[in-house]
Amino acid sequence: MNYTSTRSKDVKISSAEAIHQGLSIDGGLFVPESIPKVKLEEIGQLCSMTYVQRAVTVLKKFLTDYSDDELAESAELAYDWFDVTAKVPLIVLLRNKEDTKAPIGIMELWHGNTSAFKDLALQILPHLMSKALKKTGESKEILILVATSGDTGKAALAGFADVPQTKIMVFYPDGGVSKIQRLQMVTQTGKNVNVTAVRGNFDDCQNGVKNIFSDEEIRAKLSDTNVKLSSANSINWGRLVPQIVYYFSSYAEFINAGNIKLGDQVNVIVPTGNFGNILAAYYARKMGLPVKKLICASNINHVLTDFFQTGVYDRNREFHKTITPSMDILISSNLERLLYHETSGDVEQVKSYMKELSETGRYKIGATLKKRLDKIFYADYATEAETASIIQNVFSNFGYLVDTHTAVAMSVMAKYRRETKDMLPAIVASTASPFKFTAAVLNALGENVTGVDDLVQLGKLSRRTNKKIPKNLESLGTAKILHEDVCDKEEMAARVLKFAAE
Ligand SMILES: *Cc1c(COP(=O)(O)O)cnc(C)c1O
Known about the structure:
With 502 residues, this protein is α/β, with parallel strands linked by helices. The chain has a domain at 122-236 and 480-501: 3-Layer(aba) Sandwich (Rossmann fold). The protein is 46% helix and 16% strand. It has 22 helices and 16 strands. The strands form four sheets. It has a six-stranded mixed β-sheet with strand order 4-5-15-10-11-14, sandwiched between helices. It has a five-stranded parallel β-sheet with strand order 9-6-7-8-16, sandwiched between helices. It starts with a strand and ends with a helix.
């Protein structure tokens, strides 16, 4: 199968090339030329497979230039050490044994290294990438540069640590991430990793990295030391495709749990930021997974809710900092892929929307496209108070603890069910462990955490709810600090060159 660009019909490359390049030179995103179909019978066969086997089954349909062995090795290396055998367990919430009518399956995507769903993709991307380098004959070492406001940094570090032919360097704002996020990053082991704090805020880090990427002189100097820059951000196809797997896997788990039969329709609810996770669900649906509606849940930065409800995408609005920071986003990059597929590959149309977006911050889609999206999507958002109250409700009704992002999804699911009376079984994407957002979760449960240290909060939440702290977070207090570099924002390029030469 070949890949093309959302902005040019002339692009035709292999999946390894798409993963290697990341972004198309025309500014577009790589998309598969066609979408492979999966028969119900094949979905049924997933039921008796392990997660790694399911991953190979789904990945091979898209990554046709990788062998089964390469895919299996990548998936094993990525998911082997997840803290549960299922890798992505589905927890079915039922009020009581008789209440089997409208089951909710919580798809726990946070059993990896950083306790958030980005691990599912960032743990396997490095292996797909290093194999892509071999396949495309790349001889240079790849240096992954990341600017992080907290979560992506650790997930990328954990994924790329000690992966052959790669190096990874993460910049974070000094004093601008939580204590836990900082500890997660500065304790990262691995011979090919560097973590540097920048005296400045996240925008300074992000701009610094962008400037380095577009600086010809730096690129030339790096090239002399046989190094090439790349990024691990969420528009790389290699980050998207592993996310399709868990929708199939969770459907199989739902069958195994006895709550649905093969072929039954379900709804899928995803707490959304950059539109990566829900786009993976869209691909699964297009491939033939029996999904009725994709429910797009936002926080009060509800650009996407407005887009799906009105057909107008408008980023010109106030930006809010919320208790769901991973969804505090006004430009959802992956939406471009949806526009491409739902206009049947009309690259001129996609280009003109994206041009309007970059020039005016706004675009309006046509009536035909709007109608097509209406058939597939439902969108709404949750306020901060609604989010907190869901955490409390779910805990008291089911004894189950959700993080703030998952709570946004559950709140929107409840709105959907009330409004449409559609009570189909639902799969809710649970994107982070509640222990990642301890303060907000404790607050929602009525506890006061003012002045309480982050690490102390972990224990407090564990005692309050009788839930186990994930090992990777629990060990942070005693892990050795390995990275103490701090630099000014003007020094970032020099630090990159120094690390590249090491
Ligand atoms: C990144 C993230 C999201 C948003 O996912 P997108 O793919 O960007 O839509 C939601 N929840 C958590 C916890 C995240 O880390």
